[in-house]
Amino acid sequence: MGSINKSGKPAVTRILIVDDHPLVRLSLREFIRREKDLEVCGEAEDREQALAAAQATKPHLAIIDLTLKSSNGMELIKDMRDHHPDVQILVLSMHDETIHAERAIRAGARGYITKQEATTKVMVAIRQILNGEIYWSERAAARVASKIAGPARGANDSPVDCLTDRELQVFEMIGSGKSTRQIAASLHIDVSTVETYRARIKEKLNLKDSLALLQFAIRWQIGNAQG
Fold first, then answer.
1. DSSP-assigned states of every residue in 109-152
2. 113 φ/ψ angles, rounded to the nearest 5 degrees
3. Which residues does residue 4 pair with via DSSP β-bridges, in sequence order?
4. Is 10 exposed, middle or buried (0-12, 13-18, 19+ CB in 10 A)?
5. Percentages helix, strand, coil for the chain, rounded to the nearest 5?
6. Average pLDDT across the chain, whole number
7. In terms of CATH architecture, what is 13-144?
8. What pLDDT sits at residue 1?
9. Calpha distance 92→28 (Å, rounded)
10. Cα(65)–Cα(112) distance, integer angstroms
11. Where are the chain's structural domains?
């Protein structure tokens, strides 16, 4: 398990990197290796590999992307919380934090950082999480604070806030141009289940038909990428 220093913390913190892009993993690995008290104990590109690596290497912290090779990072966060509750989780994602940061924290993560700011903030986030704190940007923290302060919908709230994590996942895949069958195959669920999710999304977003859903999802995806 490694040595423990006088503060009760491990002398070397083991970090598991979970991302489906080899270059991202390489960049993080090299960045972490500069720190004498940190080491990369394993890497994975999907849920199954990540859970196996966590079992084998016993990391103290895992850096997880939300979009993985054949699985969903949000589901992996929940799995890690259930099977490896001592592992701290930092989400590193290209997705807009105003949509996903709060959901990731609720799922069990201790921090959220976008890939656009990773080079300047990732080590700050790691250190803050290892000190027992939650890390997210001022923008995300302010949004959560405003929601706590008052139940009224604010101008910066997203219309998709009413969707569950799985519904949001399906919605994003619709906006990416995936068909119902492609979504079902990717999520390992029945086509009928995807249709049920589509119906719920249309009802919650007050969209009259599938074309309106597709158009709204595409516009949202474009705006999300630009924002």
1. -SEEEEGGGHHHHHHHHHHHHHTT--B--HHHHHHHHHHHH--S
2. -140, 140
3. 10
4. middle
5. 55, 15, 30
6. 86
7. 3-Layer(aba) Sandwich (3.40)
8. 47
9. 10
10. 10
11. 13-144, 159-226
Q: How far apart are CA 166 and CA 60, in angstroms?
A: 28
CB 43 within 8 A of CB 53: yes
One DSSP character per residue, 44-99 reads ESSHHHHHHHHHHH--SEEEE-SB-SSSBHHHHHHHHHHH-TT-EEEEEESS-HHH
Q: Looking at residue 144, what is its pLDDT?
A: 67
Rg (CA), the chain: 19
Q: Does domain 159-226 have CATH number 3.40.50.300?
A: no
Q: CA angle, corner 159, sides to 154 and 162, nearest 5? A: 100
What single-letter DSSP state applies at residue 33? Answer: T
State pLDDT tens for residues 127-186.
999 999 999 877 777 666 666 565 555 545 677 888 998 999 899 899 988 899 999 988
What's at 95, amino acid-wise? H
Distance CA 196, CA 211 (A): 16
Of 142 and 107, more confident: 107
How many residues does the structure list for the chain? Answer: 227
What CA–CA distance (Å, rounded) separates 92 from 19? 9
